Amino acid sequence: MLEFLARRLLVALLVCATVLTFAFALTRLGGDLAISIAGPNATAADIEQVRVAYGLDRPLPLQFLEWVGRAATGDFGQSYFFKEKVSKLIFDRLPITFALGLVGLSIALAVALPLGIVSALREGSWTDRAISIVALLGQAMPSFWLGLVLMITLGLHLGWLPISGTGSWEHFVMPGIVLAFSAIPALLRLTRSGMIDALASDYIRTARAKGLSRRSIVLKHAARNAAMPVVSIAAVQLGFMLGGSIVIETVFALHGVGFLAWESISKNDFPTVQAVVLLLACIYTLLTLGADLLNAVLDPRLRAS
Amino acid sequence: MSRLLEVEALEVSFGAASAVRGASLALDRGETLCLVGESGCGKSVTALAVMGLLARNASRGAARLSFDGQDLRGLDERGMSRLRGNRMAMIFQEPMTSLNPAYTVGSQMAEVMLRHRGGTRAAAMARAEDLLGRVRITSPAMRLGQYPHQLSGGLRQRVMIAMALMCDPELLIADEPTTALDVTVQAQILRLLLDLQKDLGLAMLLITHDLGVVARVAHRVAVMYAGEVVETAAAADLFARPTHPYTRGLLACVPVPGKVARGAALGSIAGVVPRLGPGFSGCGFRDRCGEATAACGGTIARASAGEGHDYLCRLPPGWRAGAGAAP
C-alpha cells in the first residue's frame, strides 16, 4: 500500500511539473507580450519600456526559473489587467468555484447512481429505456440554454430560487443542476454497465446461493465492484466542473475561477492565465490521485500490484 | 433413510430451447447422488433449478419439486433465499471467480451465518475459522483476513466448500467442483468432499462428467442426456449392468485397467447433444444410437432393470448390440 501511494504521488508531481512548463511556454507563444501589454497606441519606446519594466527583456530560461521559484511560494506576481495580486484574485474566487463544483457533483451522483442501478436491475425494460432517453437528453442539451430555461421557470415564474449572484447556498442550486445535467449521462451509463457486468458475475451467483438478501446482493456485492470506473469518472467530472464552468458562471453571474480564466485570456493577462492553468491542472491531478486512492480502498487487488 | 429431495418431470426452457425435459431424481438424507452426462445435457441447469438460481429468462415447471417435504414450486425468491445457504448449499465449477474479489474470506463466510442464524460477528468468524480448519486449510486464522486473489484455485474451492457448510446444510449441490483444478488438487478436493459427506451426514448431489469420480464417491447415479434422466441405478449396479445405450457408450469411453486391453481402441460417441425444442418427441439419443429404429421416434416408456434401477429405452434389460435392433 505504501509503495502504491509513493508511486502515485511521484506520478502526480511529475504531471504538475510538466504542466508548470507548458503553462509558462504557452503564454510566451501567443506573440510579443510587451506589445500587447503596452496597448494598440503605444510607441516603440513605450513598448521597450514595458519590456524592461516587466522583466521581459531577460533570457527566457531565467524568466522561467524566477517564475517557478515564486510560484512555489504561492506568489504568482501582479495581474497586468486587474492591478491586483494574482494569488488574491484566485483565492477570492476559489470558494465560489468549489461550492459550485461540489453542488454540481453531489446532484449528479444523487441522480445518476440510483438511476444507473435501477436501469441495470431492469435491463431491457421500459424503465431502462426511459432512463436512457433522459440521459441522452442531458447529454444533448446545451447548458446555457438549460440555464436560461431554469432561470425563467424556477426563478421568474415560480420564484423558488434566486436567478444570479452568490449571496446564499440557494444561489448555487440552479447552476448546480445545470452542471450536474452534463455530468449525469456518463456517470449513469458507467453505473449501469458496471452493475450489469457485476450482476452477471459468478460471485453474485455465489451470493444468491448463500441466500443473501437482494439488498445485500445489489448494494454490497455488486455495487462495490461496479464503483471503480464510476469513482474515476466522477473525479474527472469534478475537474471539468471546477475548470470548465465558464459558460455557467457567465449565465448565472457567478464570478469563479472559470470566469477569471476567460477574462484573463481575453485580456492577455498572462500571469493570471499561467496561475489559473497551473492551479486547475494541480487540482485535476489531485482529484485523479484521490480517485486512485479511493479505488485502492475499494479493490484489494490494486493495493497488491 | 428418508427422502430429502424429490424432483419429478422437471422442465426448464430458455425461450424456445428446452434445457431440461422431464428430468426426475430423488435423493435421500446422507446419500451421494452423482448426476453424469456430457456438456450441455442439462446437469447444471437441473441443479440451478433446484436451488432456484436460474437466469431470469428461464422458465421452470415440475410435477413435483420438494425439499424435506416442502414444495419449492410455490416458494418466492424470499422464501428460497431462507433455504439457500442455510439448509441447501451449492458450490460451483469456477473457484477462481466465485468469490467476491472485494471482500475478505472471513467476511464472505461470516455473512452466511449472520444472515441465517444471526448472532455476533465474532461468533460467525470463529465458526468460519473452525470450518477452514475442517477443509484442511493451513493457518485458518490468517486466511480469514485474506482476499480471494491471494489464494490458489484449490484453496478458493476449499473456501467455497467451507462457506457452503457454515449453516450445517442438509443438502450440498456440487457442480463439477474439481473440473477447473489441477489433477493433484482434484483428488484432494474429492477426498475432502467424500469425508465431509460421511462425517456430517450430508446429502450430496454431485454433478460430474468424470466416471472415475462417480465410481469413487457415488451411492447412486443418474445419467442425463439431452435434458432427460435416461438411467438411474445404484452405482455398483450401473457399472455392472449399464442398460441405456448412452450409458453403455459413456462407460466404453473410459479405460479401465485390466479390463480394456492395451492398444485396444477406446469407445467414443459420435456427434453432440442435440438442442431440442419443446415439440420434440421420442428418444433424444436416437440420432447417435447404433440400435435406433423407427420405433424410437414414438413415446418411450420408463423400464425397470431391477430394484432401484430404471432406464428410458425400448430395449430390454441385458440387450446385446445388434440383437435388440428388431422392433
Q: What does it look like?
A:
The complex is a heterodimer of chains A (305) and B (327). Chain A has 305 residues and is mostly helical. Chain A has helices at residues 2-29, 33-38, 44-53, 60-72, 86-121, 126-140, 143-157, 173-199, 202-209, 214-243, 246-251, 257-266, 270-298, 300-304. Chain A has a domain at 95-266: MetI-like fold (Orthogonal Bundle). In chain A, α1 (2-29) packs antiparallel against α13 (270-298) and α6 packs across α8 (173-199). The longest helix of chain A has 36 residues, at 86-121. Chain A starts with a helix and ends with a helix. Chain B has 327 residues and is an alpha/beta fold. Chain B contains ten helices and 13 strands. An eight-stranded mixed β-sheet of chain B has the order 7-8-9-3-10-11-13-12, with helices on both faces. In chain B, strands 1, 2, 4, 5 and 6 form a five-stranded antiparallel β-sheet that branches. The model of chain B has no long low-confidence stretch (mean pLDDT 89). Chain A binds chain B through residues 201-203, 205-214, 216, 221, 224-225, 298-301, 304, and chain B through 51, 53, 77, 80-86, 89-90, 92, 94, 97-103, 111-112, 115-116, 147, 149-150, 160, 163.
